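My main concern about presentation is that the manuscript never shows what a single data entry looks like. An entry of this sort, consisting of the sequence and the corresponding backbone structure tokens, reads as follows:
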Amino acid sequence: MKMHEVRVHPSKDNLKRDDQLAWKIAGVAADRVAVERDVAAMIINRIIDNAAVAIAAINRHPVVSARDMALGHARRGAGATVFGVPASRRVSPEWAAWANGTAVRELDMHDTFLAADYSHPGDNIPPILAVAQTMERSGRDLIRGLATGYEIQIDLVRAICLHEHKIDHIAHLCPAQAAGIGTLLGLKQEVIYQAVQQAVHVSFTTRQSRKGEISSWKAYAPAHAGKLAVEAVDRAMRGEGAPSPIYEGEDSVIAWMLDGPDALYRVPLPDKGEAKRAIMDSFTKEHSAEYQSQALIDLAFRMREKIENLEQIERVVLHTSHHTHYVIGTGANDPQKMDPKASRETLDHSIMYIFAVALQDGTWHHVDSYAPRRAGRADTVRLWHKIETREDPEWTRRYHATDPNEKAFGARVEIHMADGTVIEDEMAVANAHPLGARPFGREDYIRKFETLTDGIISRREANRFIEIVQDLPKLAAEDLHLLNVALPAGTLEAGKPGIF
């Protein structure tokens, strides 16, 4: 990897393109380096993962709305498919990115990468796949595009913190999606450069989408980024330019939305000819909840075995990282995180609620664990309100560690009982993490797909998809529509009418 220093420059400097981050990102995207075998295999795993969580959410209200909007933009001939809908129906790719991206993101259960900022790099898959279908590219082309999307987003997340400035993490996603589309289509560096800049310019939004009463926009935001990325590439392909230099300029996103005129970031990117391997540093979720809760759910399952009567718990303290404490813990100071009438989107960002339910049930379900009746149970509310988080400098240090063997997303938990005893335990990474007790492999991704889609799609459709996706490198251009997963006729719900 090569480290690139990124600073703000006054307009009079007339910063050369070769020195601009967007140009360097475009160079990585335009580099036709081969995708290594284990990376290609992991890309297949993540396509399976995305399909699993999308179908599990297929008739949830935000997904229904997004799908109905997309179906209002039908396209004859080559076009993109929409999850749940027969592959014979095609829509414009930016709207497929919108519908499929929302479906993937709705349950908060696909992959993650955490460093200086946060990300769900699987959000790259819907727009890049939609364009691949529309432009009739092959399975190998798709793999190359996805390797780039993952690489660029993860490299930006390693280096540039958005959340401390209350900027949502889609600001790193949208340029990654644009770069991935550029790789997919074999575009020149100049074209990708303009598309990346446009994508950055239009995707800076605030983190209010993940604060207070969290709405369905949490699922829509990455899908919106995908839609914007498709449009940005389309504009650039037609010869249009974009605000430049988007990162280093005097009135750029860094100068006014991030660290300001004196900012200095060091962004790692693959050198020319170096393989794009960033996807191997990401990890998926076994449980449908914010990633920082994954290890704590597993830890709750383990700790409950030591407690005979949960009603005897007086208080629970989770000693954890800055992020867990301030984003999904009591440090967020969000009363909604303690409210049994809160939305599902809010509850899956409340580690107090999540730990209480996991401790009581010993299981986690993507629907049942968030049901209003479950959240409103009196004994759950009592336990929930006894839980607090505290930032521990050591857990914060491990969260930001660059050594993968040190990096951790867990906590040390103290459960104080009425008789004065204290039960303590800790877990650094979730069981499904690459360094966890049961790291996810291909069979786990397939099992997750089968579990989440059971009773929603036919066994025949499930088997067909799993067989096809594992043969992705051999798929011809006309076969990428086979990566869609359709529901039986008459089982897709329709939502309220809108404009489209």
